[in-house]
Amino acid sequence: MKPSTKKAVVLLSGGLDSATVLAHAVSKGYDCYALSFDYGQRHRFELKAAKKVAKALGAKEHKVVKVGLSSFGGSALTADIPVPKKKSHKDIGPEIPVTYVPARNTVFLSLALAWAEAIGARDIFIGVNALDYSGYPDCRPEFIRAFTRTANLATKAGVLGEKFRIHTPLIKLTKAEIIRMGRGLGVDYDMTHSCYDPAADGTPCGRCDSCLLRAKGFTEAVGT
Amino acid sequence: MKPSTKKAVVLLSGGLDSATVLAHAVSKGYDCYALSFDYGQRHRFELKAAKKVAKALGAKEHKVVKVGLSSFGGSALTADIPVPKKKSHKDIGPEIPVTYVPARNTVFLSLALAWAEAIGARDIFIGVNALDYSGYPDCRPEFIRAFTRTANLATKAGVLGEKFRIHTPLIKLTKAEIIRMGRGLGVDYDMTHSCYDPAADGTPCGRCDSCLLRAKGFTEAVGT
Prior knowledge:
Two copies of one chain form a homodimer.
Chain A: E1 4-11, H1 16-27, E2 31-38, H2 46-56, E3 61-66, H3 104-119, E4 121-125, H4 141-154, H5 156-159, E5 165-167, H6 175-184, H7 209-221
Helix pairs in contact in A: 1-6, 6-7
C-alpha cells in the first residue's frame, strides 16, 4: 500500500497514558489506527476501556490482536505471581518490578510496525514515559531509538527509504503533566483503566504501582 | 530466572533452514526451546512439520504461539493475495516479493526474546540466510545487529549486563551448503516443509519461490 503521511498506528492499552497519546495524535490530524493486545494479561479488563476510549476519541479503526505472551510467563501480569501492593507511591523503588513483562514493548512495537507497513502508515505512537513510570527498561528513549533503527532495516518500506517514525509525546512528562495535556484535549479519564490487579468487575485495587502512580498524578494535577 | 549458558530459544518454522539450525544448536550442547508461530499463515501445514522436527532433533520443549499477523494482511502468506508461481528458480528476481510479511522476523525475534528472558536463556537461534533467500529485508546481517542492540536495551536482563546473543549460523550459506550441513548433523529433510502454498494434505505446489529454492538446493547438494 502507498505510504500515507496521514495514517498513524497508536498503541492503546486502555490506560491513562495511551488514551492521552491517542487524543494527541488525533489532534495532530492523523487518521488513527488504534492497536490493543490480548496477551493473557491479568488486567484484561483494560481492553474494555480501550474499546470505549478508541470510540470516544475518534480512532479510525481499533484492533485487538491476540499474542500469546502469557504462555511464556515470567511476570506478575501474565503468570501466577502476586502483584505487589503498597501503601504509597513513595514505596515504589527504582528497581525493575515483577510486573515487568519480558520484551513486552518490543513485541507490541513489532506488531504496530507490522500493521503500519500493511496499511501504508509510517507513524507509530506509543505512550511510554521515563519519569513517573514503573522502572521498565523498554520505556527509555535509547530503547525507542534502537527500535526505530531496527524497524527501518527490517521492512520493505525502510529499504525503499520510507522511514518509520516512532512518536513518544509523553516521554519527558510527569503523570500530572500527562493528565493536564489530556484534559486540554478533552480526554475523559473515567473511561480509562490503569490497575494491574482489578476485581472481576474492573474495580481497581488502589494499591498496585499503577494505581498509586495514577492517584499521585490526579492529586498533583488538581488546581494546576 | 537465573541466566543459563546452556539454554537457547530456537525459531522453528518447520522448514529446511530452521530444522538445520535446531540440529546445529543441539550439536553445540544447548538445551533447545523450539518456538513456532501460528500467525494465520497460508502454509499452516508447516506447524505439523515443526512438531515432528522438534521431537526428532531432541528439542527440550516446543511451543506453538498464536500471534494475529493475518489480521493485518499485506502479504500473500497471510491475506487473499495469490502466491506467485514460476517455472524455475531463475525467474526469482531481486525485488522483495508479495510473500514478504510485514515485520515478520521482528515480531518473531521479539517473541523469542520474551521467552528467552522468561526462562533465563541468553541465546537465540534463527535460520535467516542472505544468499539463496527470497529478498526479505529482515534476513540481513544489519537487521540482526540492530535487533540485538534493541534486545539488550529493551530487557531487564540487558540492563543487568546479561547480553543476549542472536545466532545466525546459516547467514552466509547457500541452500546446498545448508543441506550438506544438516545431513552431517543427521537431519531428515523428509520431515520438513517449505512450500508457501501447499494442498490441504501438505503436498507442495512445486512452483513457489520456496519450493524452487528448496529444489535447487537439493539438486546442487547431490554428490557433494
